[in-house]
């Protein structure tokens, strides 16, 4: 999935995108979230070469994310409330990671937008 520099440059030019995040900020984010082992948020990622936006959220293995090529992430959404089923007859529990995620994003000055229970981290922004 890691694109060459030339392919990446063509995609950015075609879509009129400029970088907002850099490798250092992605690594700081991922490194810190890896350390929060009690937190298991679900995410969805739109890569630059994806023709269609992802629909579903899924668990993430932060350690493997870097292998996909951080420079290829157009945006990442983190679902900050996770539904936890404890049994068929028990009510579903919720784990709320809002404060933890927001603290990490603010600590590293990572650009994001919060909409309900989802934080969107922008890797690239479209030129006006």
Give structural notes.
This protein has 128 residues and is of the alpha+beta class. The chain has one domain. The chain is 30% helix and 30% strand. The chain has 4 helices and 9 strands. The protein has a 5-stranded antiparallel beta sheet with strand order 3-2-4-8-7, covered by helices on one side. It has a two-stranded antiparallel ribbon with strand order 1-9. The chain has a two-stranded antiparallel sheet with strand order 5-6. A hairpin with a 2-residue loop joins β7 and β8. The longest helix has 13 residues.
Summarize the structure in short:
This protein has 128 residues and is α+β, with helices and mostly antiparallel strands. It is built from four helices and nine strands; from the N terminus they run H-E-H-E-E-H-E-E-E-H-E-E-E.
């Amino acid at each position: 999935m890691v694109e060459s520099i030339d392919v990446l440059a063509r995609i950015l030019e075609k879509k009129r995108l400029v970088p907002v995040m850099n490798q250092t900020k992605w690594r700081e984010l991922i490194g810190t979230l890896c350390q929060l082992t009690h937190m298991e948020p679900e995410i969805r990622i739109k890569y630059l070469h994806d023709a269609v936006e992802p629909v579903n959220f899924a668990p993430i293995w932060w350690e493997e994310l870097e292998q996909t090529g951080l420079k290829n992430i157009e945006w990442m959404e983190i679902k900050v409330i996770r539904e936890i089923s404890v049994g068929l007859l028990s009510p579903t529990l919720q784990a709320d990671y809002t404060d933890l995620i927001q603290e990490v994003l603010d600590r590293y000055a990572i650009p994001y937008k919060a909409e309900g229970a989802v934080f969107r981290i922008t890797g690239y922004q479209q030129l006006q």
